[in-house]
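Batch job 17 of 40 flagged for manual review because the log was empty.
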Amino acid sequence: MSKYSSHAVTVSSGCDIVKYLKDFTTTQNFQAAFVVQCAGEVSRATLRMAESWNAYQPVKEVSDLTKIESFVGTISGGNGHLHASLSHKDGEVIGGHVFGPVVASGNVEIVVGECKNLSFTRTHDEQTGFPELLVLDHNAESNLQSESQDPTSQGEVDTTVDDLTIKTYALRLVPGEEICNGLNIFVSKHKLKEPFIMTCVGSITKAVICLGQDEKVNIIINF
C-alpha cells in the first residue's frame, strides 16, 4: 500500500512525450510513476501491435495528425510500459504498445501519478520472455526491519491510517489469469472499501463485452 500524489504537466508541441515523462520523473526522483490521464494531439508515433512478442513486429508508424484517446501505463522501472490509442480525422482508431517517440502536436496535457514508498522495477519472466513489472514496497521493508528490532512484535504490522488520503496499490496479473477475478481477490484480501482503477496496461487473449443495458447482448472476442 502506498500514499498517492499527482502532478500536472504540459508537453510542448514538437516534443517527444515519452522522453519528457522519463526526464520529468527522473528529475523528480519518482520511483513508481504512471500516467493517470492524457489529452492532446500527436503528429508522429510508433506503436507495436499484438502478437509481436518475439520479433517485435509488426510495428506501425503513425505520421499524420491524430488525437490521443488513451495514453496509459507505467513510466518508472526500466523503459516503462505504455500503451496508446490514437484517432484519425475520419474517426478510425489505432492502438498498441508505445515503441518509440510520440511527438506532441500542440500542447499535450498529462496528469502523472506517483505511488509514494513504492518502486517499480522489471525482472525477466520465463513464461512471457519479457522483463515484467516487479513492485517493491518500502513500507513493508521498513515494517519488517522494525519488527525484527522489536522483540515484543509478533505477526503482521498494521499500517492502515484512517484519513482521506488516496492510497494506491500496484499489482501484476500473470498470464492466463482472469482480470476481473484477480482484481476481486485482491480487493477482498486487502479489504478495500471503494476501489477504482487508475491505470491498466497489458495484453489479453479473450474478452466478453456487454453492449448497452441489455445483458443478453454480449460480444465474445478471441485473439
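Reviewer: the log was empty due to a logging misconfiguration, but the result itself is present. Residues 142-163 have pLDDT under 50 and may be disordered. Unflagging and moving on to job 18.
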